[in-house]
Specification:
The chain has about 90 residues and is α+β, with helices and mostly antiparallel strands. It has 3 helices and 4 strands. The model has no long low-confidence stretch (mean pLDDT about 95).
């Protein structure tokens, strides 16, 4: 399995559009083959920080996810309006 922790920092002015993109990405991702879990969280202590936690069955499932229309559309929004730090764990 593969676990991704995606830490997202966003300015106040862009928070709404980034959160909408993250929620849309989450809603579509949980329906994909090989998705074990996919959640987006808002920090309780840092108002402009989000965390997306993803768990995928294997690298093939993750690769297919990254080629999907929802990922391409919403990750472009995240990349444009945020700073992203990615942690990847394989187990």
């Amino acid at each position: 399995m593969i676990r991704l922790n995606v830490f997202i920092s966003v300015e106040d002015v862009n928070l709404s559009k980034v959160l909408d993109a993250a929620k849309e990405l989450t809603a579509s991702s949980v329906k994909e083959d090989g998705c074990i879990a996919y959640d987006v969280y808002e920090s309780a202590t840092r108002p402009n920080v989000l965390l997306i936690c993803e768990t995928w069955k294997d690298s093939e499932a993750l690769s297919n996810h990254e080629k999907g229309a929802s990922f391409i559309k919403n990750s472009a929004i995240l990349k444009e309006f945020t700073n992203i730090k990615l942690e990847k764990f394989e187990f």
